[in-house]
Amino acid sequence: MNALAEKVSRMLVSKENHPQITEVRVKGCVIGGEQLIVIAGPCAIETEELLKETAFKVRGAGADMLRGGAFKPRTSPYSFQGLGVVGLETLARVGEAMNMPVITEVMDSDDIPAVAEYADILQVGARNMHNFSLLKKLGRTNKPVLLKRGMAATVEEWLLAAEYILAGGNSQVVLCERGSRSAEKWTRNTLDLSAVALAKELTHLPVIVDPSHGTGVRSLVMPMAKAAIAAGADGIIIEVHPHPEKALSDGDQSLTPRQFSILMREIEPVAKAMGRRIR
Amino acid sequence: MNALAEKVSRMLVSKENHPQITEVRVKGCVIGGEQLIVIAGPCAIETEELLKETAFKVRGAGADMLRGGAFKPRTSPYSFQGLGVVGLETLARVGEAMNMPVITEVMDSDDIPAVAEYADILQVGARNMHNFSLLKKLGRTNKPVLLKRGMAATVEEWLLAAEYILAGGNSQVVLCERGSRSAEKWTRNTLDLSAVALAKELTHLPVIVDPSHGTGVRSLVMPMAKAAIAAGADGIIIEVHPHPEKALSDGDQSLTPRQFSILMREIEPVAKAMGRRIR
Amino acid sequence: MNALAEKVSRMLVSKENHPQITEVRVKGCVIGGEQLIVIAGPCAIETEELLKETAFKVRGAGADMLRGGAFKPRTSPYSFQGLGVVGLETLARVGEAMNMPVITEVMDSDDIPAVAEYADILQVGARNMHNFSLLKKLGRTNKPVLLKRGMAATVEEWLLAAEYILAGGNSQVVLCERGSRSAEKWTRNTLDLSAVALAKELTHLPVIVDPSHGTGVRSLVMPMAKAAIAAGADGIIIEVHPHPEKALSDGDQSLTPRQFSILMREIEPVAKAMGRRIR
Amino acid sequence: MNALAEKVSRMLVSKENHPQITEVRVKGCVIGGEQLIVIAGPCAIETEELLKETAFKVRGAGADMLRGGAFKPRTSPYSFQGLGVVGLETLARVGEAMNMPVITEVMDSDDIPAVAEYADILQVGARNMHNFSLLKKLGRTNKPVLLKRGMAATVEEWLLAAEYILAGGNSQVVLCERGSRSAEKWTRNTLDLSAVALAKELTHLPVIVDPSHGTGVRSLVMPMAKAAIAAGADGIIIEVHPHPEKALSDGDQSLTPRQFSILMREIEPVAKAMGRRIR
């Protein structure tokens, strides 16, 4: 056991104590298994029509799950805040129609019941990774949780945030690296793929990567998706929008369905080289 | 109007639109007035006896308000999480006995009613600065809010977090700089006093500084308290514990009551040089 | 042309103005061609025997070039500072014996002639990326330069540092990402692979990655080497030491020759997936 | 001796081993004594006329020493690089005429003799703090050195950089905090005044602060100058230009002579509160 493994050795997330990789199963999808999982969809749910169009196209290109935000954590109170419960309903409807499990963010412990009613995986955003009250309550649900790393969180803090959920009794946790804040000006965040390798080495939890938020730059999504897979990630989550230039949020980092389809084709050889298959 | 003032010019926090400095009044204390406000107390409320002893001593040394955590945001789920409602009751009782307004953290929107019942100022911790759901609900209360800057938040994001509260109808907001995460290893955080000067220049809100969390090093609390005052802060918030070596949290950065009393004496000339008085 | 390409559009490094990828040729090795280049060797040259042993083994495992420091930039004046010119001679001798081009760091403009006499590629370390005087003088040599990214340098600054060399007349520049300083405590640096993808997108220069310094953790070298290749790197540079536990510097991040040999085997499928071959 | 003092206890810079504060004396000015030293002047030396005008005015307002760059470390090779030796001559002439010691940057070990001929203090810029070769050679000169902290350097690395100079035999070193790189967008750097307090606590070297580079924002220079003094700094270095809007570099952060004169008046009470006097 090396020095870092020792640091997590008394934690529930530790691979030492639980050598078998946790597989998070959602309606036939398995995150953490041999198959690499691809989650795709718009940043925010805008209209049912747009979501349907996106879902149809990403499904066709090979995506496994559908993402879309109903409650949006926006820096400014004057930015579009998401459709709320109406968005959740839309997401659930489209997911069902396309036979895709759906994932969406929960921002407040009060909203857990509503989000849990409609979503298959509850996402904790980077800005809430240290919202311990939310983490504790998610530990008492029976829904899988996707836990994004906070934008200045160390790997240790990220694993301890996951530990809050496991300690509450919920072991269906997927870690998600989404980039850290840095002084770099040409990218929105600095994607830290060594954190992915570390999390895979030290814990039994599946780890996925968000190269869309992780870079904030459309042309970097593809190379970072490949790099994430080569670093050992169990999946990727990609923002796709039919008309990125008109998106209500995150247009600069969203792929068009066509670009997403090229991405799916191009990541396949890398996935294979890593012994993983794609749907 | 310079370029930065322009960036906030359409916000409720902007000094352009509201040249008069907001004074936050709590039981006879005024934050943002001529008097420099000193808030002191332990990191966490441990026992009523310890809190009383601390309050008695910091009050004697000249502190205006009493701080103490009942709900503690701890990195590890296995660390002491605070006494919760029992801690709130203790804090309120001791504050009343000492005739000191009290301030304590609220970590979850569900806890707002309970915390608001006992506390005179509700603190939003650095880890929750981006908990927009909490901010929105605090905008609908009528209690003053102390808003700490997030550990990797830009000044713009900090001001927009305050804007969430003001936009909700609550203009009793005090900003608090508490240090940003950095690569420096000898301090816990890097205290950014230029953020204090910027916030004072751009907004009408009072700004205080937490040199205890801002440095994490006992011997740095005094020089950084002086520097904060010279940078234009309206007050400081200091961790004091009768027996720092036995504190359940943050012992390394807590002053003893005797050290606090020296600090009060030593900051006085700097406050005077800045045209401020101390109680 | 996108917004970032526009920012570099008037620079000599820009791919817009020079669509053909620069191939840096050194004694039969081509950096920037179809073949992925692997540079390996110890952090510092310690003895001729050790260097020979290392070179023999990494050559056997498939390395293309030999690295080794003679002038070492050490944080403390009391740490081993390298063997200087004696080290250069040793490196040149061993390189010749093994038929491997050699690369070593030049720390001072005064040392350029000596280093250029013995080395095939002159390395500018991260701590000297902003040593503009050194860069200017390297622009006037006719030796290839490997330019590491500074530990807090933005991508723009890194490209402008390269521009200093090109503007001086030397276009044989290889960029090298080696990790940025961050608040993460479990790795020595945060390897920024999006910078690799950006540099490949915006410039015609070859880009390699140093996962040894980029992570500082032995177990992370392999996954980050794979990720680097998947991100589009033209090569990797790896620290190898026969007895890492006895190394005079960087033992924690050095692979044993055996580990290096496994790495060579494991990166091959990823390289192939990216359309690259390994020697 | 506390834990941090212990870390430097075997260094020449340590206050434990050398409790008497080092006073750096330059033509009647003492840095590190009771008097607070104010260094002022333009970023770059542009013309003799401009420099004279600036020197005359800052001298009149109470500045002790004159600054001005002849060799400029510019991010881009296409930016104004300074006047070189002609600039040095100009600086020396103006300094002599005004009876002000002069300080200017040395960027390359080759330039030490030339710079040492004209300047009273040799400045090592932030970008060269890790240029160990330069530091070693400065250790062998008999001129005082002003050592700026690197833009991502830890306090430990900064002190070890000073140690390089002291270990070479030159103990006339002045430390200078000038802000660290951070993710904050509204300031150029994040001025770390706790580093000043730490350096004063742990070493016997004088410490000054550069609030011009430390913030990059004109309106922040004054509050940060005051805060620096309150944090215990032995002096400040301020960029002043008669026509900031026409300056060849750093115009945004330069004060006009009139603003500088107000600054001199306003820092006085803070200096007095700290037991320091101004010329």
Helix run count of chain A? 10
Q: N-to-C SSE series of chain A?
A: HEEEHEHEHEHEHEHEHHEHE
Shape of chain A: globular
CATH architecture of chain A: Alpha-Beta Barrel
Domains of chain A, number: 1
Find the structural class of chain A using helix and strand composition: alpha/beta
What is the class of chain A in the CATH system? Answer: Alpha Beta
Largest interface: A-C, 44 and 44 residues
CATH fold type of chain A? TIM Barrel
State the distance separating the first and last CA atoms of chain A: 35 Å
Total count of strands of chain A: 11
Mean pLDDT score of chain A: 96
Low-confidence stretches of chain A: none
Explain what the structure shows.
- Four copies of one chain form a homotetramer.
- The first copy, chain A, is of the alpha/beta class and 279 residues long.
- Chain A has a single domain (40-72, 80-272), classed as Alpha-Beta Barrel (TIM Barrel).
- The first copy, chain A, is built from ten helices and eleven strands.
- In chain A, helix 7 links the parallel strand 8 (173-177) and strand 9.
- Chains in contact: A-B, A-C, A-D, B-C, B-D, C-D.
- Chains A and C meet through helix 7, helix 9 and helix 10 of A and helix 7, helix 9 and helix 10 of C.
Reconstruct the topology from this structure.
The structure is a homotetramer of 279-residue chains.
Chain A: H1 3-7, E1 24-26, E2 29-31, E3 35-41, H2 48-61, E4 65-67, H3 85-98, E5 102-105, H4 112-118, E6 121-124, H5 132-139, E7 145-148, H6 155-167, E8 173-177, H7 193-202, E9 207-209, H8 211-215, H9 218-230, E10 235-239, H10 257-273, E11 277-278
Parallel strand pairs in A: 3-4, 3-10, 3-11, 4-5, 5-6, 6-7, 7-8, 8-9, 9-10
Antiparallel strand pairs in A: 1-2
Helix pairs in contact in A: 2-3, 2-10, 5-6, 9-10
